[in-house]
Specification:
Pfam families: PhoU. One of its GO terms (biological process) is intracellular phosphate ion homeostasis. Belongs to the PhoU family. The chain has 93 residues and is mostly helical. It has a single domain, classed as Methane Monooxygenase Hydroxylase, Chain G, domain 1. The chain is built from four helices and no strands. Helix 1 runs antiparallel to helix 2 and helix 1 packs parallel to helix 3.
Length: 93
């Protein structure tokens, strides 16, 4: 999020591009967190409430990263006049 704000304030294309690449890392962390928490909850059902809270935290952080990515894409559009949203989604496929 900080990099996104810095890229916006500084109109920094390189930093905005870096934010786009970081989103995939956050997505991976969220999937890993979900898997680990599910394993812990299966082993100890008393951890379900805490585990679900952790899953929601992970989900919300991943959503923040998605929104930061949207802002970074807007920065690139603003500075370069190029739409990068669909191109990035196609590269992931």
């Amino acid at each position: 999020l900080r990099d996104t704000l810095d890229a916006f304030i500084g109109e920094d294309i390189a930093l905005a591009t870096s934010v786009l690449q970081t989103d995939d890392v956050v997505d991976t962390y969220n999937v890993d967190l979900y898997s680990r928490v599910c394993q812990l909850m299966e082993k100890d059902p008393h951890l379900v409430k805490t585990g679900m809270n952790l899953v929601m935290v992970g989900h919300n952080l991943e959503r923040i990263a998605d929104l930061a990515t949207n802002i970074a894409e807007d920065i690139l559009y603003m500075k370069q006049g190029k739409e990068v949203r669909h191109r990035i989604e196609e590269q992931k496929k």
